[in-house]
Specification:
Elements (H helix, E strand, L loop, with lengths): L1 E7 L4 H11 L7 E8 L2 E8 L2 H4 L2 H5 L5 E7 L14 E5 L2 E8 L5 H10 L10 H10 L5 H9 L7 E5 L4 E5 L8 E5 L2 E5 L2 H7 L2 E5 L5 E5 L2 E5 L10 E2 H7 L5 E2 L2 E2 H15 L6 E4 L5 H11 L7 E3 L23 E3 L1 H4 L3 E6 L6 H12 L4 E6 L21 H4 L2 H8 L3 E4 L2 H4 L6 H4 E2 L1 H4 L10 H9 L2
Parallel strand pairs: 14-23, 17-20, 20-21, 21-22
Antiparallel strand pairs: 1-4, 1-10, 2-3, 2-4, 5-6, 6-7, 7-8, 8-12, 9-10, 9-11, 12-13, 15-16, 18-19
Helix pairs in contact: 1-7, 4-5, 5-6, 9-10
The structure holds guanosine-5'-monophosphate and magnesium ion.
The site of magnesium ion has 3 residues, from loops.
Length: 460
């Protein structure tokens, strides 16, 4: 889970990158960074924390130049240490290079061990650094050829933006796991994980960076390269549409908001129930709840109100007997839900712990019945391609059947959208999407994770 941005040929490149990251903050709240180029040198600012806290005018003044790349991080690979904050920046025999990466490689450990055996010293614990070691050790003269040779050795998910003193280079893996879009702002080019970043800076959305495509931005302008012969099936991450992307973005050529409403409509058809109102778990459950309500004709109500100002700085009084838990974030609208039969809609259940507390809270507020409806299938498998799902042992649906989960969550009924109805918009989804978190069908082998295949074959 990360967001990336790249800005080429703009006099205030770092400020545009900053705004792009601001729009992508939902993709990672742990750390952020920007690297710009001025007077032939890479300038870097990276910190733990939120974009708005890390950058201010004086900091951005120290990031001049007309090219910049940025990153927001939600640790997926590598511990959450300062040395892992991206963009990673290196000096090597050809000069400086910085890189922002969204996605996760599945053979980085194997490659890293190979390099370490030959004496390489790694500075971080991220999978991304492997790409830089690969680039540095290629013999081709030009950077593009070195990047191509390197990317042919890595397996897994990557949307990448590189920056050197003279070029910005952008790459998306041949399966297109993570989104990456191209925009234009006057004579400048912007690349970003999601279109919502283009909207904020006033750029027009041109197109996706295609799976397997590499774009080079230099003083000659933009050039496109497609070095992967025999393009494989695509593996667009369906969880981007279910949960991760912002609903105002267009991802893999589809509007996220519309897709989520469609999940809700499918859910209402697949799992109808009599009730007085449809209530979303905000914010992630809202579009699906609207779709459920439209399809079923049962009124939509904001039965749960969210505090939008919850931050990391919240301190629970230590002498308090009870933890505030989910109450910090959500509170029922009591007069609304009292005595009522609710259809509670959320996008997914991961551990089940939040869902359980929400149901408790609604019961305390006097709800008569709570029918929980989930706008995606049970999350049974961890993601190895960049979504921060917990281990199998912590995923409730990997351990329990829906009826047991219902008992744990203490709702009156529980139903999930089926994989078939999740893909209501694409009957050939096997050719286009990765749904491994739901189906266990991992599109490629996982060299760094030999155990998962064992777990998988044990599954009933
Ligand atoms: P649970 O009941 O499993 O504890 O929490 C379910 C909630 O977690 C849902 O509202 C869902 O939107 C949210 N969720 C799903 N995936 C993720 C994730 O990867 N990270 C975070 N922080 N929340 C998630
Ligand atoms: Mg949620």
């Amino acid at each position: 889970m990360c967001g990336i941005v790249g800005v080429f040929n703009h006099p205030e490149a770092s400020r545009i990158a900053y705004l792009g990251l601001y729009a992508l903050q939902h993709r990672g709240q742990e750390a952020a960074g920007i690297v710009s180029v001025s007077e032939g040198r890479l300038q870097t600012h990276r910190r733990m924390g939120l974009v708005g806290d890390i950058f201010d005018e004086p900091v951005l003044d120290k990031l001049p130049g007309n090219m910049a790349i940025g990153h927001v991080r939600y640790s997926t690979s590598g511990a959450s240490a300062a040395k892992n904050i991206q963009p990673l920046v290196f000096d090597y025999s050809h000069g400086g290079i910085a890189v922002s990466h969204n996605g996760n490689l599945v053979n980085a450990q194997v490659l890293r061990s190979e390099y370490e055996a030959h004496g390489s010293i790694f500075q971080s614990t991220t999978d991304t650094e492997v790409i830089v070691h690969l680039i540095a050790s290629q013999h081709e003269k030009d950077l593009l050829s070195r990047i191509i040779a390197s990317l042919k050795r890595v397996e897994g998910a990557y949307s990448l933006v590189f920056l050197t003193e003279t070029k910005m280079i952008v790459a998306r893996d041949p399966r297109g796991w993570r989104p990456l879009v191209l925009g234009k702002l006057g004579d400048s080019y912007i690349v970003a994980s999601e279109t919502c970043a283009l909207d904020l800076v006033g750029a027009t959305y041109e197109r996706e960076v295609e799976p397997g495509e590499i774009l080079v931005f230099s003083k000659e302008g933009m050039s496109s390269h497609r070095p992967f012969l025999d393009p494989p099936k695509k593996a667009f991450c369906i969880f981007e549409h279910v949960y991760f992307a912002r609903p105002d973005s267009e991802i893999f050529g589809r509007e996220v908001y519309e897709t989520r409403k469609g999940f809700g409509r499918s859910l209402a058809k697949e799992h109808p129930v009599e009730a007085d109102m449809v209530v979303p778990v905000p914010d992630s459950g809202v579009p699906a709840a609207l779709g459920y309500s439209e399809e079923s004709g049962i009124p939509f109500q904001m039965g749960l109100i969210r505090n939008h100002y919850v931050g990391r700085t919240f301190i629970e009084p230590t002498d308090q007997i009870r933890h505030f838990g989910v109450k910090i974030k959500l509170n029922p609208a009591k007069s609304l839900v009292k005595g009522k039969r609710l259809i509670l809609v959320d996008d997914s259940i991961v551990r089940g712990t939040t869902s359980r507390k929400i149901v408790d809270m609604l019961r305390e507020a006097g709800a008569k019945e709570i029918h929980f409806r989930i706008s995606s299938p049970p999350t049974r498998w961890p993601c190895f391609f960049g979504i921060d799902t917990p281990n199998r042992s912590e995923l409730i649906a990997a351990q329990q059947e829906p009826e047991e989960i219902r008992k744990f969550i203490n709702c009156d009924s529980l139903a999930y959208l089926s994989v078939e109805n999740l893909f209501y918009f694409n009957k050939n989804h096997d050719e286009w999407f990765c749904d491994a978190c739901f189906s266990g069908n991992f599109p490629i082998p996982l060299p760094d994770f030999p155990d998962i295949t064992k777990v998988k074959s044990d599954k009933k």
